[in-house]
Design brief:
This protein is an alpha+beta fold. It is 37% helix and 20% strand. Helix 1 runs parallel beside helix 4, helix 2 runs antiparallel to helix 4 and helix 5 crosses helix 10. It binds adenosine-5'-[phenylalaninyl-phosphate].
């Protein structure tokens, strides 16, 4: 009796399917024969009330038939959607192909890769750190406590936290990697840490809310400002492909002591004076200094056991100088007329 019913349903589907003309009709058919309220579903639900022997026999038939019906419906679906019948398809291999647009790197990435190449060739390791950072790694361990005015130097995006939870920020600089790396390693080492940084700032030709920095950190027993000057000179000469001079000016960062801003002689005019360097002959590059012993203490090193230098500056600035780009907002503008030039 049940077997008969199941076979009848299959026959009805086979007849009905030949009359289907569109996907709505097919949808209705599927609902009618396999839907939740269909006769077929009732049969499947009733299997549990049958004797063990019948349940096995009818169950097998019902499942097989259900799969067959689903198969019939699927091929109709493909037929209606114009799916290609491989048996009938012809390919004309003489037709010209479609040219695929090939993307390429943003100049920021190109410059970042170049920086990594130069530094790894000098024996530096590339280190990494999180972009969402705790207040401790971004500020406290770098000798910038909560009530210190130096926190105002870097306008910060704070992430919402429940009261009592440690503050989270979008890192304002790559200096957090100094702390993360030093907490896990013992000197001597030399690293660079390129990466994305964020500041809650109004944007202009030189400032973005999201930009890239790269940090360099060298720590050993006997590191001095002379080592910094040598590494900086070697790097910039390789990067710009010409001889350059380095100039230091006194500055302040809580995590370095002494601290300085450093300039390079203009990579465009060689120091004679041009529009890029504002006719001064010098280009301002970034901040640097000798690692403050308080920072060493924060990562568990003994005071005065080590010395080191650190610097950090903006990768967009280097890309702008190298490719003569006048506004850092171009980099993330998504304007293909800009990116395609590189
Ligand atoms: C710092 O961020 C320090 N962490 C650098 C440092 C590291 C000093 C290690 C000493 C030792 P500062 O806030 O000056 O410093 O930023 C460094 C560079 O990042 C700037 O010279 C500039 O090139 C770039 N920069 C800063 N803010 C922006 C911004 N909003 N958009 C684009 N570039 C920026």
């Amino acid at each position: 009796m049940l077997e008969q019913k199941i076979n009848d349903i299959k026959k009805q589907v086979a007849q009905a399917i030949s009359k289907i003309k569109n996907s709505q009709e097919l949808f209705d058919l599927e609902k009618r024969f396999l839907g939740r309220k269909s006769e077929f579903t009732d049969i499947l639900k009733g299997l549990k009330d049958l004797s063990q022997e019948d349940r096995k026999k009818i169950g097998e038939l019902a499942n097989r038939t259900k799969n067959e019906i689903a198969g019939i419906i699927l091929s109709k679906k493909q037929e209606l959607s114009g799916a290609v019948d491989l048996g009938k398809e012809k390919i004309d291999v003489t037709l010209p192909g479609y040219r695929k647009g090939i993307g390429h790197l943003n100049p920021i990435t190109t410059v970042q890769n170049e920086i990594m190449d130069i530094f790894t060739s000098m024996g530096f390791e590339v280190a990494d750190g999180p972009e969402v950072e705790t207040e401790f790694y971004n500020f406290d361990a770098l000798n910038i406590p909560a009530d210190h005015p130096a926190r105002d130097m870097q306008d910060t995006f704070w992430l919402k936290q429940k009261s009592g939870e440690e503050g989270l920020v979008l890192r304002t600089h790559t200096s957090n990697v100094q702390i993360r790396y030093m907490s896990a390693h013992k000197p001597p080492f030399r690293i660079i840490a390129p990466g994305k940084t964020f500041r809650h700032e109004a944007t202009d030709a030189k400032h973005e809310h999201t930009f890239y920095q790269f940090e360099a950190l060298v720590v050993d027993k006997n590191i001095s400002v002379a080592n910094f000057k040598f590494i900086a000179k070697t790097f910039f000469e390789k990067f710009f492909g010409r001889e350059l001079n380095i100039r230091l000016r006194p500055s302040f960062f809580p995590f370095t002591e002494p601290s300085f801003e450093f300039d390079i002689s203009c990579a465009i005019c060689g120091g004679k004076g041009c529009s890029t360097c504002g006719h001064s002959g010098w280009l301002e590059i970034g901040g640097a200094g000798m690692v403050n012993q308080k920072v060493f203490e924060a990562v568990g090193y003994k005071r005065n056991e080590y010395q080191g230098f650190a610097w950090g500056f903006g990768i967009p600035r280097l890309a702008m100088l190298k490719y003569k780009i006048d506004d850092n907002r171009h980099f993330h503008s998504g304007d293909l007329r800009f990116v395609k030039q590189f």
